[in-house]
Amino acid sequence: MNLDKRKDWDTYFMDIAYMVSTRSRCSRRHVGSVLVQGKKLLGTAYNGAPSGVPDCSEAGCMIAEEYELVTENGQEERMIKKQRCVRTIHAEQNLLLFTDRIDREGSSVYVTDEPCWTCANMLANSGITLIVYHRPYPKDSAKVKAMMDQKGIMFRQLEGYCPPPETVQKVQD
Questions:
Q1: 92 annotated active-site
Q2: pLDDT (tens digit, 9 = 90+) per residue, 99-158?
Q3: Are 108 and 129 in contact, with CB atoms under 8 Å apart?
Q4: Which of helix, strand or coil describes residue 80?
């Protein structure tokens, strides 16, 4: 590795988010998030069961199925099925639980995965001004992007990014 070439800040913080994700014991998806104020790291979190409660690797996944009517091309409607684990607290939710509101004002969140609708709602009300993610979450993407635009929160995918090899997990949907 060339020590003269430093990683840019986006890559640096996304690498940290991926390293944090390795703490997750979720069998479906490891997600990590970090809170950054300027260039200062203020907090990290990953997805998992509440502290002291058996996680999915110990007690099995608790999958809930939901159906949502989506409109495409302004007129076509179709029903999509979404599955989510109700045992797991998402990385973004844990990040908000374990950081202070005053630290979040004007801060950035780096998260391995595009936030779901629920997490996007929480982040939109948290005081942060930038969300950077790597892996897309197409099931909620359009409405999340629309809300972020409405709120004036910068929201972008880190394209061309390659996570550290030791952090890559096979994603199950």
A1: yes
A2: 999 999 999 999 999 999 999 999 999 999 999 999 999 888 999 999 999 999 999 999
A3: yes
A4: strand
Catalytic residue among 68, 77, 92, 159: 92
Instruction: Give all strands (DSSP E) within 13-168, no chain letters.
Output: 32-37, 40-46, 63-72, 76-85, 108-113, 130-135, 154-157
CA distances to 8, 38, 52, 131 from 20, in Å: 19, 20, 19, 17
d(CA 112, CA 18) in angstroms, rounded, equals 6
- 17's CB contacts (< 8 A; 6+ apart) are 32, 33, 34, 44, 110, 111, 112, 134
List, as residue ranges, the binding site for Zn(2+): 90, 116, 119
Is residue 30 situated within a structural domain? yes
User: Could you count the other beta carbons within 10 Å of the beta carbon of residue 157?
Assistant: 15
Residue list, annotated binding site = 90, 116, 119
Q: Which residues pair with 133 in a beta bridge?
A: 111, 157
Q: What CATH code is carried by the domain that includes residue 100? A: 3.40.140.10
| Domain that residue 139 falls in | 9-49+88-159
Q: Is the pTM of this model over 0.90?
A: no
